Amino acid sequence: MATCDKTIFNRLKRTEGQLRGIQKMLEENQDCADVVTQLSAVRSSVDHIMGIIVAENLKQCLENPEPDHTQQQAKIEKAINLIVKK
């Protein structure tokens, strides 16, 4: 997963900044709708990060298949379940 580490870490740092901003908004008693809008943005960001990680995992499974077909199927199934699970 080394190829996307920098991208993932940058996105995580951005998301962390968004969360800090939300904390500040709450401390300043800002409008609920604005806070929820920012929380939605954080959720979207986290979903995107998860998608990147799962896609990379699935790509690795397909590019470097397991010698045992059953193990390969299990790895692919696991990746798919990560996408579908919510």
UniProtKB/TrEMBL annotation:
InterPro entries, alphabetized: Metal_Tscrpt_repr (IPR003735), Metal_Tscrpt_repr_sf (IPR038390)
Gene Ontology process terms (BP): negative regulation of DNA-templated transcription
Ranges in a coiled coil: none
Transmembrane domains' residue ranges: none
Native source organism of the sequence: Lapidilactobacillus dextrinicus DSM 20335
Protein name as annotated: Metal-sensitive transcriptional regulator
Domain of life: Bacteria
GO MF entries: DNA binding; metal ion binding
Pfam families linked: Trns_repr_metal (PF02583)
